[in-house]
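Researcher:
Attend to token order:
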Amino acid sequence: HTQRILKFTKSISRRNLLPEEENHRVMGITGSLSPDQLEFFHSQGYLVIESFASEDEIRGLRKRMDELLNQFDCSVSSIFSTKNQKQTTDNYFFESAEKISFFFEEKAFGDDGILKQPKELSINKVGHALHELDPLYREFTYSSKFSSLVSSLGYKRPVVMQSMYIFKQPGIGGEVVPHQDNSFVYTDPQSCTGLWIALEDSTTVNGCLWAIPGSHKNGLVRRFIRGENGVTFDQPSPSYEQKDFVPIEMKAGSLIAIHGNLIHQSFENLSPKSRHAYSLHVVESDGCKWAKDNWIQRETMPEPLYGLP
């Protein structure tokens, strides 16, 4: 059993792992994934876990976000778009790495520059340090259920480098073009895993995730690099056949773990129903070096979920 788990976890990256028993003894954390789940994750590049968050947790996270939105000053914000990344290279975007910042949908404003709908129906996402600065989101993120999950994936000292509350607003929820999480959250060796929790049912109607199963095995295709003149990709985007993508519909409370090299996307939400989600990106801080040209640059790394100091 132990050898089988180690076989799966070693393939997630080139980082050195402790033997499973020693790993758990040091951390005091027991992995929650079964060998069959690990095998699926490493063969397909993703894994859906149903009922990861309880109804009470979902209700609490959504209520707290409503409170944050009510306190939000619309005059201090930015627009988020995956189609035109240059729109997200202002100081507000860069400083959001260590703050709770608000980003509008690209189609939220009319030609006159005024919001076409209330602000709570105009926000694309809130990020990128919710998990550190808001007590409720911190408690949820640093709970044992997350630690057990990433322990199963072989992390020795995991760090959440960014968190996002994603709204996928009805009618204007923006498209997220095909991408890999390692492009944006890069370590050497690569170690990113995305954790995406559906806070509402996520379907093909309201803009669920789509992925190319097994595409993580082809490696990283490009990086999102921060330089003196802002951020840019170091390579053009490859073209993808839509027939290769499969929809990943999820019930509220479900979690999907996403390998850092998995190609995934979501379409615009043209439906009358939103698709709220809470997303985290975890990296290894033991034996993996945070890239100096990542868009996220911090004076100190966040507190790890677990592991030796």
Q: What stands out?
A: Helices lie at 2-10, 20-27, 35-44, 55-71, 91-95, 130-133, 135-141, 144-152. The first helix runs from residue 2 to 10. The chain is about 20% helix and 25% strand. The longest strand covers residues 158-166.
